[in-house]
Amino acid sequence: MSRFPVTNELYNAYIKSKGIEHPVKGWEKKKDHPVTYVGWTDAIVYCEWLNSLFKNELRSDLVLRLPTEAEWEKAARGPDGREYPWGNEFDKNKCNVYENGKDGTTSVGLYSPRGDSPYGCADMAGNVWEWTHSLREKYTYDHYDGREDEKASGARVLRGGSIFGRGARCAYRHDNRTINYSEDYGFRVVVAPKLP
């Protein structure tokens, strides 16, 4: 699991290679903020682009992709199933959420290491909702039930809360039933086995 969400600056390398416009207006002033206004399909295509760049450096059984919902949750909650990446008590000083009064995204890692997960992942609570690979299906998670089919239609799950949310609990599931692009939708990448 990448330590941080994909930033505006990292996303700009992709944008330049494709000759398209950056989704964030004035991103140059927020280079180290998470990229936003990125839809699920955009995130999938970005991962495909990364795979083409690093194809000679990855083992043949691994790819760069969006994390499944279960992978994201494990990275955020740790082995002990925490409510928040840092523990079981909410602390607005460990994440960028509504309660701390910031007016927008902040630099990735601003709350690190105090807000990090047990695995060292930063910004897994607040700042931006993060796309997962998974369709919204009932828990308990079963990756063989079709939820990881990239061609299937339906609402994809976002995790992590955002600047506009309250609390940002690790277990909270959000989906995009009404919108696909938002000023608080971003993503991170995982190096993991190909999905079935």
Description:
- It is a single chain.
- With 196 residues, this protein is of the alpha+beta class.
- The chain has a single domain, classed as paralog of FGE (formylglycine-generating enzyme) (Alpha-Beta Complex), CATH 3.90.1580.10.
- The protein is 18% helix and 12% strand.
- The protein is built from three helices and six strands.
- It has helices at 8-18, 40-54, 69-77; strands spanning 62-65, 129-135, 156-159, 173-175, 185-186, 190-193.
- It has a four-stranded mixed sheet. Strands 1-6 form a two-stranded antiparallel ribbon.
- The radius of gyration is 16 Å and the shape is globular.
- The mean pLDDT is 92.
Structural class: alpha+beta
CATH topology descriptor: paralog of FGE (formylglycine-generating enzyme)
Number of domains: 1
**Overall CATH architecture:** Alpha-Beta Complex
Rough outline: globular
Low-confidence stretches: none
Strand content: 5-15%
**Tally of DSSP β-strands:** 6
Number of helical segments with 4 or more residues: 3
Strand order of the largest sheet: 4-3-2-5
Whole-Å distance between the termini?
Answer: 19 Å
CATH class group: Alpha Beta
Topology order in helix (H) and strand (E) letters: HHEHEEEEE
